[in-house]
Amino acid sequence: MRSVFEPDRPMTLRTIVVIEDDPMLRQDTTDMLEAAGLSVVGFEDGDQALDYLRHHRQDVSGVFTDVKLATETDGFEVAHLVTATRRLTTSATIDKT
């Protein structure tokens, strides 16, 4: 499968895609990145993010994704499809006790 990014395109500061199924973590991550001066687009699952990336790849500088997502397309799959961009994959577990 072809990557949704063009590997030879020069990297400039554009948009960071955040993929996190926990709404609170997604908002906190978005807030921190925006506070650092970045433009952020957040998604709750990999399918939504991949659809966005297919249509806006020229606007995206990187992808910040949770590894464990509640949908079929998890963070590993997203990372595999966007290997031509700089990315950071994360996973977190919150103890709610």
UniProtKB/TrEMBL annotation:
Would the keyword Phosphoprotein turn up in this protein's UniProt record?
yes
User: Pfam family example for this protein?
Assistant: Response_reg
Gene3D superfamilies in UniProt: 3.40.50.2300
UniProt keyword Transferase, yes or no: no
- Keywords attached to this entry: Phosphoprotein, Transcription, Transcription regulation
**Domain Response regulatory positions:** 15-97
Q: Which residues carry this modification: 4-aspartylphosphate?
A: 66
This one is known as Response regulator
Organism whose genome encodes this protein: Lichenibacterium minor
